[in-house]
Amino acid sequence: MQTERAALNASAARQPRSWGVWGINLLTVTLALVWAIPILWATIVSFRPPSDNLGRGDVWFADRLTLDSYEKATSLAPFFPKWEDGHLTNSYYTNTIEFTALTLAVQLVTVTLGGFVFAHFEFFGKRFLFAFILLQMMIPTAILLVPNFVTIREFSTVYLGIPKALYYKEFSLYDTPLAMAMPYFGSAFGTFLMRQAFLGVPRDLVDAGVVDGCRWYHLLRHVYLPPSWPSLIAFGMVTVSFHWNELLWPLVVTSDKARPLTMGLLRFTQLTDIGAQWSLMMAATLIIAAPLLLLFIIFQRQFISSFLHSGLK
Amino acid sequence: MTSSASVRTRWQMRRPRIQWLPYVLLLPTLYFVFLFTVYPTFKVLRDSRIYYHPSRPDRQMVTDLKLPGIDEATRSIRGPNNVGLAYFRAMVEPDSPEGETFRQVIGNSALYVVGTVPISMILALLFALLVNRKMRGVGIARLALFYPTVLPMVSAATIWLFFFTPDYGLWNQLFKFFGYGGPQNWVINPKLALWSLIIVAIWKNAGYFMIFYLAGLQGLPEDVYEAAALDGANWFTQLTRITVPLLRRTTLFVSVIAIIGAFQQVEHALVMTYELVSGEADLLLYEIYQQRFIQQDYGFANSLTVVMIAILFALTLANVFLTERQEYAN
Q: What is this structure's pTM?
């Protein structure tokens, strides 16, 4: 009986018998390889000497492996900060890290508070305000580049009331990490996600807390947050990978000082003296992508589950 | 409900106190959503009527703009640079430059959506079925299929630009290997530039959509398959008659986020097609960017943005109604 059941299970389900399992395995391996070729080839090419223009038919193998391409790429463009007279210089890496960290820090606060309010309180206009915030999911920030660019440019004069005479140099938000991060400070997606997470907390637990005389921040800290960390971490991962890779909005609101990595690469590929020096381009490409890719390889499962949530975005 | 159990007198019992705390906690989110989403949306609607074109000396007056329905009388009423709905009217005119650009861009975007969405979704389902098995090294396969999602689009586009180079690029080598000596330079060729964007997008998105199908597959009931196997259904019948219908909701969801995402993808175009003449292979969002920051035609950029907002809004509403209908059906 037992063996029969087992045989049934093995033959049923998704194991096609006609081709045989080996054919399917071969197909899986082939597709995975085809999908992996771009990154593999970029890696191989980036370890070639910079002079190598790949004109020869030899595609896969270099005469020797060097770090020359990486050294040359980092000398041509400020990817990494340098230590000069007591402070770090501006670099693509520090700009991206500042932008991402700033966005993440503010978002974690606003998203937690927003989710908490919608999960815990009953108040006048709750549904309307929730719908108002969800508008952000329907009208993504990406398509409002033009008006948001004007808002950022005039932020200090119009919104902070600093007179134009004092304005251009010191008070303009244009070309700062803050300008890149600001449109993302309120996140509809995150608010929605945290509300879902907080609604999953048993009501009895909350009521017990209230009876014990918890203030709202105690409730949030000790009742709502402990079971909801996974959601918050998932949201953080999506945010970090989204903003690390972002190009379009930074392209609109930065010009020089605050360039992030993605924009650095874009400019790098369009430098005339690089020409078709592909080994340099591939080195730059990998310099940009490496941190996230390494994180992804280490935390594969968490990344995939957090990206599952991001479908809402 | 915050219930601080404070003692109240009888007349206070009839008037519950206004809770101000939730509003205070929501203020930051509301402020930033208003400032960077709601207000700019209305601003775009308003500014699509304004004619302002700093970079073109031959187009400094509204009268320089060859638009229908702008004459002295209307200008004196509306003010100097207000052209009303003229941009939208020009977009549907058969022979105005704005109309040509608009039709080309909409056509390109439509082709892009039709080219990327179905193929990457079919691939995503195939990947999910392949990876959702017990096999040694299946984790590595999943990694290889999903990593393009985590890779920045600029990096992906740069690598593919390298593949598309004439002569020694891998793409052309492949074609040569199969004995095809056709068009060499994909990225410069206006006919093929859009297809090179589509190829990159498929490669990048298939793994992302795969994870939704994986989640869907893991929620499927086992016993249905056992019954089908007992009835002698082969794998193909099981796939078409059980798996695909049961994953209908996943498919709907993925198709909506795929279409919405396709309208917002533009970074690969910045890397791969920036040498092309404007409009030849431009997608809608890229054209907006170019009109505003390169051609500096402010009103046209705003008008195109209005069209894009309308498209995305319609898609999102369709999504809401479709998923609602689904829930009633079940």
A: 0.86
